[in-house]
Design brief:
This protein has about 220 residues and is an all-alpha fold. It is built from six helices and two strands; from the N terminus they run αααββααα. It starts with 19 loop residues before the first helix and ends in a 12-residue tail after the last helix.
Length: about 220
C-alpha cells in the first residue's frame, strides 16, 4: 500500500483551506499548461476538415514511426482523429519534458542563477528548494505570471519562435535561426532522435514527479529521504 508522505507535499495542500497564494499559483499553472501544451488553434479547427477527408495515415519510414512498435495505434485514433494536431502536441510535450528533465538534474546538483529571483521579497535563486513540489510553492505568484506571459508569447509567435501553422512541418517554429539539413537522410535521423529523446524525457520527468510525491529522491528513488 503506497502512502504519500506529508513532508513531500506543500503544507497548504494538507490543510482544508488553501491560502490565496497557493490557489493563484495552481490556477496559473493549470492555465499555462492549457496554453503551452495544446496544439495551435489552426490544428484544432482543421479537425473538422480532417474528419470529412481521408485520415492522415502513418507508415514505416515516417518521422517517429520507429521499431520495435512501428505504427502503434491500439486505440484506433488514426482513422478518427486529426493526427497532425496530435503530432504537434507530442513534439511540444517532448521538448518541454527534455527541458524539465535537464532542469531537475541541474537543480538537484545545486546549480542556481546568481542574484535575486524576487528583489521585492528578498528571495534569491539560491534560496529556492530543489523539490518538484517545494519549488512550485516557493515561486512567487508574480514569477508564475511572467512564465505564463512569456510562454503565451512564444506559443503565438511573438517572442523567440514562430507560430505553428498548418503550412509548416510539425514542430517547425524556429524560423531562420534553426539548423536546416539538406540531406534527407540526415534530416530524418535528427528528427527521429528528437522524437525519441522527447518520448524518453516525458517518461523520465513523470517518474521524477511520482518519486517526489512518494517522498523519495527525484533522481535516486531507491534512497529514502
Amino acid at each position: 500500500k503506497l502512502q504519500i508522505r506529508k513532508n513531500c507535499l506543500p503544507s497548504t495542500l494538507l490543510t482544508p483551506r488553501a491560502d490565496m497564494k497557493t490557489a493563484a499559483v495552481v490556477a496559473l499553472a493549470l492555465f499555462e499548461a492549457v496554453e503551452a501544451f495544446q496544439a495551435p488553434a489552426q490544428f484544432a479547427r482543421s479537425a473538422t476538415v480532417a474528419k470529412t477527408s481521408s485520415p492522415q495515415m502513418f507508415k514505416e519510414g515516417d518521422i517517429g514511426v520507429l521499431p520495435p512498435l512501428g505504427v502503434w495505434d491500439p486505440l484506433g485514433l488514426i482513422e478518427t482523429r486529426n493526427m497532425a494536431r496530435y503530432e504537434v502536441m507530442e513534439i511540444k510535450h517532448g521538448r518541454a519534458a527534455m527541458l524539465g528533465f535537464v532542469h531537475v538534474i541541474l537543480i538537484e546538483a545545486g546549480a542556481r542563477f546568481p542574484g535575486y529571483l524576487s528583489p521585492s521579497q528578498g528571495l534569491k535563486f539560491s534560496d529556492m528548494p530543489a523539490g518538484c513540489f517545494a519549488s512550485l510553492e516557493a515561486l512567487p505568484t508574480a514569477g508564475w505570471l511572467q512564465i505564463m506571459i512569456t510562454t503565451c508569447m512564444m506559443e503565438t509567435g511573438y517572442f523567440l519562435f514562430e507560430a505553428q501553422t498548418v503550412e509548416k512541418e510539425p514542430g517547425d517554429i524556429g524560423g531562420s535561426f534553426w539548423i536546416r539539413y539538406d540531406d534527407p537522410e540526415v534530416k530524418t535521423y535528427k528528427l527521429n532522435i528528437e522524437r525519441q529523446n522527447g518520448r524518453a524525457a516525458m517518461m523520465g520527468i513523470l517518474g521524477m514527479i511520482v518519486h517526489t510525491a512518494l517522498g523519495q529522491d527525484a533522481l535516486y528513488p531507491i534512497v529514502s529521504k
